[in-house]
Amino acid sequence: MADKRGIARVSMRVVGGVIGLGVAGIAIAGASLLPLPSFQVAAPVSTVKPVPADQQRVCPGPLLALAADAGAATTASPFGAPTSTYGADGGSVDTRSLKADADGSSRGEAPQVLTVATPQGASTPPLVAGAQSQSATTDDLAGLATSSCGEASADSWLVGGSTALGQTSLVMLSNPTSVQATVNLSIFAETGQVDAPGAAGIVVPAGAQKVVPLAGLAPSVAAPVVHVQSTGGQVLASLQQSFEQGIDPRGVELSGATGSPSRVQVISGMTIANLATIEGAQSGEGYGADLPAVRVFVPGDQDADITVGAVGENGTAAGNSYAQTVKAGVVAEIPLDHLKDGNYTVTVRSSVPVVAAARTSVAGAKTHDFTWFASSQPMGDTFLAAVPSAPTPMVHFANPGEKDQKVTIEGRNGKPATLTIPAEGAANVKVGAGMYTVTGGDGLYVSVSFAADGAASSFALNPPGPLAAPIEVYPR
Q1: Considering the chain, what is the average pLDDT of its residues?
Q2: Per-residue pLDDT reduced to its tens digit, 425-445
Q3: How many angstroms separate the CA atoms of 223 and 402, rounded?
């Protein structure tokens, strides 16, 4: 028979163990329910505001003659030097020449780079502007060509040119940066994208210009549009087009990039002159290639419903409107018929993003010429306008807003001029060659045109590229 006291001792130990386990469980549960001390360290962060960079503009350089040397049929050679006008609102403008694709006889026969240093501690960069002009009077090239000096870019659109019979178009790629640029050209035509293997991987050395004859990539194209994309260095893309009918030159133009794809494109200052003379020269086979038209390209995969409005500037005809459907991936030209001589603002509205530019021609007593009018971006409140030496310069303002807008134009010499731009309207003012400061221009579209007997040209003004926004840096 078991010892009763032994059994009691075992029972007490069991009961004590159970009680101990219960107490431990309660303690653990209580600890889990009590708030634990917390310790948090916020990630260190600092806000960095980028310092405004020095401002740089590139002037495309002289007009080029293709196959001027019989031993180099595909070489574009410069002839003469353009006249340049440039300036800044603070500091001096440093100039340097890029290495031309074909060396000229002087330093001026090459693209020019304009650089203005940003003062230390400045929160905004200085304003700078430049432009160039050149008249051609050779047996193969005749006409007036002007161009604004623009910012280099990694992505731009050239709307203009032709490689049809008698037409020569050159894509001019200027690389002002210190690194090599690799450029791809996507070429589109009235039949869609052009298969051009040689258009990819074009190397533009640092500090140099490369000229690409468009006919070698897209022959017999009446209405090309070129999308220029670069990696590495950025480039200024320009397009030189010349027209020769038989042995008679009929114009030359140097056009820059248009506005990037958008559902609304605004073309300010389109000028029509001596239209009756041009219409009288038609063969009767429809709307002639010399008559006013808008070239439109739809870069997406959806067809575009296009509406084009041409509204006359102050003192000109009322204008007209046009509607057309343009297929995706193709280039179309919309005739601007039933217009009279005058200055117009052309607005292209589309159901999908497009790029656009307008073209007109002028016939003089002895010579002919044509002009491309590029779409542009709205300007800021204060900007500089460079007007090179060329016949009858005129500054055009287009106001898409709902209120009249007053601008002041002040040259380096002379009294300031004030101009009122009506709401949803436009106005122009004649100026002389030189540098001008424009205030009150916020949201306006601006261009500069030139005209003489049998000569014409134009270029659009664009605002400087946007400043970099402040960024937050988290060190590791």
Answers
A1: 87
A2: 999 999 999 999 999 999 999
A3: 35
pLDDT class for 470, splitting at 50, 70, 90? low
DSSP class of 139: S
157 contacts 228 by C-beta, under 8 angstroms: yes
Residue percentage of the chain with pLDDT more than 90: 69
DSSP 86-106: EEESSSPPEEEEPBPSS--SS
Kindly give, in sequence order, each residue whose CB lies less than 8 Å from that of residue 211, ignoring residues fewer than 6 positions away. 64, 76, 101, 102, 170, 171, 172, 173
Give the CA dihedral 150, 154, 157, 160, nearest 10 degrees. Answer: 60
Contact 175, 208 (CB under 8 A): yes
Output helix, strand, coil percentages for the chain, rounded to the nearest 5.
Answer: 10, 50, 45
* Residue 37, C-beta contacts closer than 8 angstroms, at least 6 positions apart: none
Place of tokens 């292209």: 348
Tell which residue, 187, 174, 160, 346, has the closest CA to residue 243.
Answer: 160
Residues contacting 274, CB < 8 A, separation 6+: 341, 362, 363, 364
What is the arithmetic mean of pLDDT over 129-139?
A: 94
149 within 8 A of 132, measured Cβ to Cβ: yes
Amino acid at site 2: A
Q: What is the mean pLDDT of residues 289-300?
A: 93
Q: Provide the pLDDT confidence category of residue 117 given band limits of 50, 70 and 90.
A: very high
Q: Which residue has the tokens 């050149």?
A: 134
pLDDT at 314: 79
Q: What is the pTM of this model?
A: 0.86
Amino acid code (one letter) for 134: Q
**Pairing relationship of beta strands 262-272 and 319-326 according to DSSP bridges:** unpaired
Q: How far apart are CA 148 and CA 188, in angstroms?
A: 25
29 backbone dihedrals φ, ψ, rounded to 5°: -65, -40
* Cβ 376 vs Cβ 266: under 8 Å: yes
Torsion sign, CA atoms 233, 236, 237, 239 = negative
Q: What is the pLDDT of residue 46?
A: 61
Q: Say whether pLDDT at 12 is over 70.
A: no
Q: Does residue 285 have a pLDDT over 80?
A: no
DSSP output for 349-396: EEEEEEEEEEEEEEE-SS-EEEEEEE------SEEEEEE-S-SS-EEE
